[in-house]
Amino acid sequence: xxxxxxxxxxxxxxxxxxxxxxxxxxxxxxxxxxxxxxxxxxxxxxxxxxxxxxxxxxxxxxxxxxxxxxxxxxxxxxxxxxxxxxxxxxxxxxxxxxxxxxxxxxxxxxxxxxxxxxxxxxxxxxxxxxxxxxxxxxx
Length: 139
Known about the structure:
- By secondary structure, the protein is of the alpha+beta class.
- It has helices spanning 2-19, 36-42, 52-58, 70-76, 105-138; strands at residues 45-48, 65-68, 81-89, 95-103.
- The strands form two sheets. It has a two-stranded antiparallel sheet.
- Helix 2 crosses helix 5.
- The mean pLDDT is 88.
């Protein structure tokens, strides 16, 4: 009887845990992003690589990368840039810290989508204007 009760209780726990759903975190202050094309146009894409000695110390890739210069991106879109301290060995049991400016490319995506949508609106307006001019010339 004891085994049956513990088995039933275990089955109940499994069933109950399967019914628990994730709670969505509420987003506050939701506003449409405006002027994304203007913002994105200010960003200057670059290719770069970290200094080989620093890359080795900080355990980051020395290979060619694509992105933005952090300080320039920060002046344009400060919300996507963070400064991160990274420790590195500076002798036996001694560590120092170097700072890396990082761009959060995932948070850049909504701006890119917004700029594409703005460009599409411009393209559509130009198409309408061209069609209107063609219609006037045809008369």
